[in-house]
Each structure stands twice: as C-alpha cells, then as structure tokens.
Amino acid sequence: MKKAFTNIHPTAIVSEGAKIAQNVVVGPYSIIHENVIVEEGTVIGSHCEIGHPVQNSSDGDPLIIGKNSLIRSHSIFYENSTFGENLVTGHRVTVREKTFAGRNLQIGTLSDVQGHCEIGNFVKFHSNVHIGQRSKICDYVWIFPYVVLTNDPHPPSDILLGVTLEKYVAVATMTTILPGVTVKEGALVGAHSSVSRDVEADTVVAGSPAKYICDTDKIKLKDGSNKSAYPWRRHFHRGYLPETIAKWISEFPEK
Amino acid sequence: MKKAFTNIHPTAIVSEGAKIAQNVVVGPYSIIHENVIVEEGTVIGSHCEIGHPVQNSSDGDPLIIGKNSLIRSHSIFYENSTFGENLVTGHRVTVREKTFAGRNLQIGTLSDVQGHCEIGNFVKFHSNVHIGQRSKICDYVWIFPYVVLTNDPHPPSDILLGVTLEKYVAVATMTTILPGVTVKEGALVGAHSSVSRDVEADTVVAGSPAKYICDTDKIKLKDGSNKSAYPWRRHFHRGYLPETIAKWISEFPEK
Amino acid sequence: MKKAFTNIHPTAIVSEGAKIAQNVVVGPYSIIHENVIVEEGTVIGSHCEIGHPVQNSSDGDPLIIGKNSLIRSHSIFYENSTFGENLVTGHRVTVREKTFAGRNLQIGTLSDVQGHCEIGNFVKFHSNVHIGQRSKICDYVWIFPYVVLTNDPHPPSDILLGVTLEKYVAVATMTTILPGVTVKEGALVGAHSSVSRDVEADTVVAGSPAKYICDTDKIKLKDGSNKSAYPWRRHFHRGYLPETIAKWISEFPEK
For residue range B143-157, what is the model confidence (pLDDT) as tens digits? Predict the structure, then answer.
C-alpha cells in the first residue's frame, strides 16, 4: 500500500508492501523493504537500507519510523524495531532488530545499535557509539563518541548482562561500561574510563577502573559564572520541549 | 565469464571479467570489479564494492570469496585477498589487499582490515575492529568491539611490527595491542587495556599498561554453576563444527 | 556549468549547478550536489555524496575540492568547506561544513571530521579519527586510529573549547585529547592515553591522565641503528615534497 507522496527519488527501490505515509522523502539509491511503516513527514537520505529482513526470523513485526524523522544517508535499519517521532540520525548508522525507542532519539554518525534494547525519550547518542544488546537507556541520557556499552561478562559466552543508564546520565568519550553495570540518575562518567561497578546518582566517576571523583555539582561551568555545570538540565536546553525546559528551570532556580 | 545465476539485481554492476559461480546473489547498487572470483552460494548485499583495484599494483591476483559466504551491505573488499568458505560480514566492513583468511571468518559491522595479514580458521571479529598490517591471527581467536591491533613502534615510521594472536585468544572491548606483541594461546585481554608486552598462555591481563591479573581458569561463569569461564571452548559452541565441538567436550570433561 | 569531462559514470547524479573541472572522474551511484566546485584531475569513488546541503544554512559557500584529489567510495562531504590540492581520503569518511584544510590532507577510512575546524598542510589522519568542532591542527600533524579530539569541558553544554595540535605532533592510537588542550610542536602522545593538560614541545606523554615520560629524542628507532625515532621528519619522508624533505635532511644531519 503506497499512499500519495511527492518525493520518492526515481532510483529508490520501495517495496510494494512498505507502508509509506504522506509527505515522506526517500533519497536516491535507497532501499525500503516490505515490512516497514514510515510515518508522515519523515525524510530518508540516499544509499539507505530500511527494514532489512532479520535472518531466520518468523515473528514478522515491522520496522516503525515515527513521524517527522530524519534518517541521514548510508544508514541501515532492520525490521522489528520501533522509533517514536522525531528520530534524527547521522550518516551510516546501523540499527538492528528489537530496538524499542521513544521519541526524539538522536543517533550520531557511525553509531551501531545492536538491537534487543530499550531506549527512552530524548536520548542522544553522539557519533560512533556502540550499544550492546540488553542495554536499557532511560530518558534524557547523553552518550558521547566511542563509548561502548558491553554485555558479556566473560567473552565469548552465552550470558548477556546489559548495562542500565538512568535518567540524565552523561557518559563521556571513549568510555567502556562493563556488563551488568547500572549508572544511576544524573551521574557523569568521565572520558576514557572503564566502569566496572555501579555508579551512584549525581556523582562523577573516572579512570580505569573508574573511581569516585566528586559529586557532580562540584564541577563548575567554564563560562566564568561560578555556577555548577551539573545537573546539566539546569543550563543546557537545546532540542528539548518548551514544557520540559520550563520544568527544569523551575526545578533549579538561579543560585 | 559469467555462468548461470539467478539473482544478480538489475542495478548491480558486474564486470564481464568477474568469475561468478552459480547460485550467487548480488544486491542492488553493488559493484563487482573484474579481478574477482565469487564461489557458489555466496550472497552479497546492496551498495557493496567487491574487488576494488589496488593502486599502482601489477601483481594482479584476484579477490577470492569462498563458497556460501555472506557479505552484508555497504562493504568494500579489495582485490588480491583470499577468504575460505562461509565468510560472514556485518555491514560496511572494509578489507584491503593481501588479506589471507581461512574458513568461517566473521567480520563485524564497521571493521577495518588493513591488509597484508594472515587470519586463521573460525576467527571472529565483532564490530568496529581495526586490524593493522602484518597482524597474524590464529584459529578460533575472538576480537571484540573497538580493539586495535597496531604495528608501528614509533609512529610515523617505515617499520612495521605486527601483532600475533595465538589460538583461542580473546581480546575484550576497547583494547589496544602495541606493535610486535604476541598474545599466547588461550589468553584473555581485559576490556579497555593497552598491551605492551607478550601475554603468557592461559592468563588474564588488563589495565594500561596491561598487567597479569590471574590465570584464566580462575574466572567463574556467571551462571551460578561455579564452573570456569575459560577455556571458553569448554562451554561456548555456537557456530563451530560438530566435530570440533565434540573434540572440545572430550578435552574438558565436566568438573 | 559542466565543462568537458570524460568519466562521469552514467549512474552518478550530478547537479546542473555543480562546477566540475576537466578530467574529473565520478564513480557509480555517487551524488554531486549543486553547491560544489571540483577542480581538475580529481577522482570521486562510488556511492559518495558530495556537497550535502547544510540544514538551516543561508550563507551558501560552496564545497571546494582542490585539484588532483582522490575521494574514495561511500564518503560524504558537506557544502561550505575548502580543501587544497591532493586531498586523499579512505572509504566512508564524513566531513561536515566549515572545515578549512590546506593541501595534501589525508583522511583515513571511517574518519569523522565534525566541521568548524582548521587543518594545515600535509596533515594525515589514519583510520577512524574523530575531529571535534573548533579543533586547530597545524602542518605535518599525524593522528592515528581511534583518536578523538573533544571540545566540551562538561558535556552536554554550549561551551566549546577546541584542541590545538601544533606542527609535527603525532597522536597515537586510541587516545582522547580533552577540551582546550594544546599539544605543542613535535610532541608525541602515546597510545591509549587521555590528555588533560597542555603537552610541552618535543616531549612524550602517555597514560590516563597522560604524564610526561621522556623527551622525544630518547626514543630509538627499532631498526638497530641507535638513531632517535623523533623528530620523525628526520627519517620518515613518504608522501612529502622533495623540497620539504631536503630541508628536513639539512635540519638533521646524521648523528
């Protein structure tokens, strides 16, 4: 079933079975497989493969891309995953089956989401992030480049212990989170760290193995203001809903 | 010479000189250059470039892809390399010339094999692995995401000292192996490590620089069984030959 | 304006507005957008996207690719950047807007240049390098695989403090340079390091956090000669201009 749309490039290969809403753009040389639902207003760049079949799978759930999403070029999404509205990806992202994500997910260039994971709302992955299977990532989490969420406590094995990142957590560049670790609400993991134990809420850990450095509110903004840089939602508001920002501002009156 | 085949996508560009066996699939928008031999039963996904010419080369050996292989989309293989049967790749892998690999090699998404290297049988690279030139990787080795095998002892220079990984070695996530290092049979390198010296057989090393932690058999399986997690071939059998598994089971009777 | 050229593949999509000089090659399934100037003798591989429009931008400067460049397959360049002659890229590089680079830049496979940065002449990025916004990279710098140049001192925030790498600096594999750091002329940063402070000229630092190890001239070439491996321009000359090499040789008479 193809509804009216105005901008499928003539070189795009769109399966007859794909359900493409109105006002969807599909770029040159992209492929849309049949088990796909693309909601209205979504833009898919060039050279993508959307709804890649899962090998040896028979459950047959579709890939659902929420409305007003933007999937940049050379990206690959498998069937059997769901994304809320306003998904935005960089280029050449890879997202495997059974990834269930809320709205306004951002996935940076080269990131690799291995599937079988849960992702909340307004989660942001910067470039080249690797999300292992069984990861659970809550609302408003930030993950920076070259971070790996692992899952196998003694590789190779058949045991998968996913990582959990609670709300507002930020994981800085080139950090590995080891299997089964929970990073609690509002914590910051410093760059180039290896995290082998749970991290307490609103604390900073760093190093390899990562150790407690200080509470997050001890880190000052480098803008000369002497204000705390954390909780980051006190000062960083780009890309969030007006009502969310208003709530965050009321939560943290100036001090 | 093109033999009979049933499933070359009409948008694929297949050179007249390429030798494509029967029952080979080539996906949309893929390119097969002329100096290529693809054996029967192999599947090549979309947007690939197979048999990329080597610059300034005149030796002209072909790229050989063994039978029943699967090369996933957006992958690039150069000419002048050889892969045994049952090669399986993730998406967007890059494999340069003079890579000589045995059977059942697995190369994860985004991995980058720089060529001029030897790879044994049943070797498995997870996602985003970087294999430097002059690496030698023996049978049944596992390499996990964001591992780099280096080769230049004082970069930049013209001296290349490759890394050697012996049989059954496992190298965990985000680890760098420094030039000329040999990791001996059955050793485990922990995540986020930097390995500057040879690693003894059946030992665990970790840290930066990596140091001896314990013998591998001291690590217990996290399944409540109190059994050792290593040698991993005692319990992990997915994807190996029945006769290999039988041998491994007889080698390690229950204890 | 399309001038005479001999080798635009019939499947390439070249905008009428693109300014393509003579003797330019564009490979199959590549896309050249309209705000692009490609100088003579340049080769663009397959599946590329060149001159990707910048979202919400109105300044409209073109992407300029200097003469005799080579952009390998699956690469993406945005408009509003400039590259001098002899640019060479690996496969699937991503280069965002407002990247201003000199001549003979090399960008390895999978590298991700985030834009808003300055890059000198004869700079070489090996594979999978991540260059954050506001980076400043001077002439003759080398960056090795999986190095990240960061910019946000307390992520996420709106404050960007770029990294500066002075002339002849070499940054080894899997290293993170933290925001605002300057690595001074001729310094070497060891593999798998995290650099939080400025690095003095002609010194070696390593570790996490990186500490002073020795002066660079204490590192000997592993060729049995007992000569110093640094400054590397004493012995490593591949890919530089004859007059540059002559100058380097006169600067470092044999000792």
Answer: 999 999 999 999 999
